[in-house]
Amino acid sequence: MTLAVAFPNQSPRVSFAMRKLTEAILEIGETIETVDPQQQQRYDIVIASSAQEAASFGVSADTSVNEEGFEIRHDSRGGGPTLYVLANDESGAMYGVLELAERLRNCREVSLVPACVINARFPFRALKFNLPWSSYRMNACFDVQHETVRDLSFWESFLDMMAENRYNVLTLWNLHPFPYMIRPVHFPEATPFSDEELAEWKYYWTSLFRMALDRGIETYLINWNVFVSEAFREHYDPNAIDDMQFYFGDAYSTEQIKQYNRECVTQVIDEYPDLAGLGISLGERMENMTPEQRQAWIEDVYYVGMKQAGRPVKFIHRAPFSVDPQITRTSIENNGFMPEPVWVEVKFNWSHAYSSTKLLLTHGGSNGMEGYWNPPPAHYKITWMVRNEDFFTLRWAQPGFIRAHLAANSHDYVGGYYVGSECFIPAKDYSHIEDSPQMTWTYAFQKHWLYYMLWGRLLYDPETPDPVFEDALGLRYGEQAGRQLLSAYSSVCKMPMALASFYKFTWDFTLYAEGFLATNRAEYNSGQAFISLQDLLESQTFDPSYLSLRDYADRLTRSQSTEGFVTPLQLADALEADAQQGLKALSAITDESPALASEILDAKAWACLSLYFAAKLRAGVSYALYEKTGMESDRDQARQWLEAPHAAKHWEDLIRVTQSRYKPQPLMHLGETLFSWELFRPQIEEDIAFVSRPNS
């Protein structure tokens, strides 16, 4: 059967979605013919991206359809059964056609596709992507990404993924992007490239921004303020401080530097018409400036540069690290020239959003940060930054956490979310053993496809049910496997949030959940990175509703109530139950392709980590009681929980299920030391040695 499809507005966005619909129609054994509405009156499918287009077919979208929303409807008024995809803009029509393609794959027949009206919950649904050049972080894991990230084929795949998952914002982050984009009129030597090299860069950026726009994705450039290129320093300011690329330290700013950055802002806006906006990260390289001076620098450079451009652009203003909300919110509210809303970015629980759904910490501390949203802003919206510095290798999928997060933090003053990392670029996959039959993906984000699907689809529509994700897994691995695999992930992937709620953290390197690590600069290349039992004993909990090991032991020995708290033993019981439930779901999967085996082993790795953490918590409780009472039976119990068949075995199981696929890999948290789970086998033994020594 040939399906006749009419779509008057053959915009790039609708055309992109039509390619996906065509694939779905072919998969169900049908063919497709696109028809001219002026030449034919009978259609199987009609796509309208405006009220006027819908009216030309004698229909109108439901009045509840908003911007980026859509309706799928069946109607017979055109002389036969017709399915309509109706929207009020091109993005809504694109999402509606993508939804139709997905539902058609599952229903296998157009007439069986259920009707629906779906609107975007958040207007701002962003991915954070750090660029490997002029990068904020420096490590081999960034060095290996240059070629891939410069490849427009990579971006075509990445942007396809974004559009299919309903993301509408791409934020590109690096210290100083301008020399890679323009040659400033008054500072031509600040750009180190030849005309030919710069032309290649300009083609790259122009193509990237256009591909994003064609998929309904706005692109923003976000940098770190008071920086110049090395070429600028060489040719225009030899007295500038060394290492202007390093992000940490005092500001060095002159009128010439301000003029240079201001000119860069204006030229980038004018030379790249498809660039949607700019952003700043107020605080880096500004340590010796007062909050007033920092905001004044942004106003004098960015605000003025934007005003001098030939068109308005949107703006992301990262909340300053030194909290003084009144200064920044007054500056934004009174600007009067930027398109509204301005997006004010706030790190949710600093660098480790995979901790609690409660906002307990922001960048630099939380005292006073609520001043950005209380009272509610008039001209800007808060956008939560969901930073992931906790798992880069193992696949993660926990839809319950995402739904709970959105439900708890979807206030009227919130415009949306960013999802991404500072220490991981999802381009070249450098963790997996090459030429493995399991490696069916080209890029890292394709391996983590479910992670991106969960966040994107739930940000668009938090009511998206689990069967949507089960079906996506089922299309890859079979219906039965899809259901069981999502169930397993949903159970075992609670582990990083459990660890982050229990073990107090701050900035990026203070926690890396999948490695059971907590590092800082002083601990690079040392075994101290591993979270030892002693570390757990000495730490406080991040979430105040959790009791630490020693606080719990103190309450037990004093016969004090623990009601209202999550105790270490309760957390251990939950971790073990989740691990066993996940392993049970995995055991029900009978057919395994190499690609499915890779997913299963990642879920098993999370189960091993859950069981390891549970055993270690129980050991910690016993040892904390030994510290209080001096009873040797408590110390013996702690040692037993750390040995096989408990913690030590679970770590060995973790090594076993990972080393067949993953190789030692660069990890920002460890500096030049390559990460593997096997690397920390000696620390497992050190924990046992620690509890075996008498309490001094």
Automatic annotation (TrEMBL):
The entry's keywords: Hydrolase
Domain of life from the UniProt record: Bacteria
Short name of one Pfam family: Glyco_hydro_67N
SUPFAM superfamilies referenced in this protein's UniProt entry, alphabetically: beta-N-acetylhexosaminidase-like domain
A molecular function GO annotation: alpha-glucuronidase activity
GO annotation terms (biological process): xylan catabolic process
Ranges of residues in domain Alpha glucuronidase N-terminal: 6-99
Protein name: Alpha glucuronidase N-terminal domain-containing protein
Organism: Paenibacillus piri
Source lineage: Bacteria, Bacillati, Bacillota, Bacilli, Bacillales
